[in-house]
Automatic annotation (TrEMBL):
Classification via Pfam families: ABC_tran (PF00005)
Chain ranges passing through the membrane: none
This protein's UniProt keywords: ATP-binding, Cell cycle, Cell division, Cell membrane, Membrane, Nucleotide-binding, Transport
Cellular localization per UniProt: Cell membrane
Membrane topology of the entry: Peripheral membrane protein
Lineage: Bacteria, Bacillati, Bacillota, Bacilli, Bacillales
Record function comment: Part of the ABC transporter FtsEX involved in cellular division.
First-listed, main subcellular location of the protein, grouped into a coarse class: membrane
GO cellular component: plasma membrane
Annotated protein name in UniProt: Cell division ATP-binding protein FtsE
Cell membrane in keyword set: yes
Length: 228
């Protein structure tokens, strides 16, 4: 599903965020990305949905070489890749339903299909009864559920989550991870950058640890491996 081959990223300010990254993530995997702040995790994650481009090396997602992708083709890529952010990034003037539907409206999906699919994903994340509420009327956890629903409404092959529980209390964080578990069971690949030690150590999945822009550990059923 995702392959990185010799990926290095150097920013214009001289910072080298990634150095010689080689990694392969298979369809259906659930992968945690861990490491200290500033280690290169966010850059690693952003490579997968073409928010950042490598200085050298190749990033291949679902058979598409992102280094050869034209800017005009990026929206098509992102219909195959769902992205969930720490700060939700919802449109404040739209209801929960409308925020999720927006992703399908943008590709001119049929209204009947939009209604069916949006209703399905809001039910999956436990928000069917709050579809008409604005983001300001929802809790942080509920806003993140809307964000997740929006990320999966297109039935992407992979969902990439960058610190999705970072702004949430512990109980709500568990609720969010359990939703990712449900999505993963349905066959969607999940790649999740996180600082949440308890979640990584309790729900054991593959762990990729990044330090100083390099992968220092890649373990099936790994643990967090850093002091809290």
């Amino acid at each position: 599903m995702i392959n990185m081959k010799g990926v290095t990223k150097k920013y214009p300010n001289g910072v080298t965020a990634l150095q010689g990254i080689d990694v392969s993530i298979q369809q259906g995997e659930f992968v945690y990305v861990v490491g200290p702040s500033g280690a290169g995790k966010s850059t690693f994650i952003k490579m997968m949905y073409r928010e950042e481009k490598p200085t050298s090396g190749r990033v291949i997602v679902n058979g598409t070489d992102l280094s050869k992708l034209k800017d005009s083709q990026v929206p098509k890529l992102r219909r195959q890749v769902g992205v969930v952010f720490q700060d939700f990034k919802l449109l404040p003037s739209l209801t929960a339903y409308e925020n999720v539907a927006f992703a399908l409206e943008a590709i001119e999906e049929k209204p009947a299909i939009i209604k069916k699919r949006v209703t399905e994903v809001l039910q999956l994340v436990g928000l069917k009864d709050k579809a008409k509420m604005l983001p300001s009327e929802l809790s942080g956890g509920e806003q993140q559920r809307v964000s997740i629903a929006r990320s999966i409404v297109n039935k992407p092959k992979v969902v990439i989550a960058d610190e999705p529980t970072g702004n949430l209390d512990p109980d709500t964080a568990w609720d969010i991870v359990n939703i990712f578990e449900k999505i993963n069971v349905q066959g969607t690949t999940i790649v999740m950058a996180t600082h949440n030690r308890d979640i990584v150590n309790t729900i054991r999945r593959r762990v990729i640890a990044i330090e100083d822009g390099r992968i220092v550990r890649d373990e099936q059923r790994g643990d967090y491996g850093y002091e809290a």
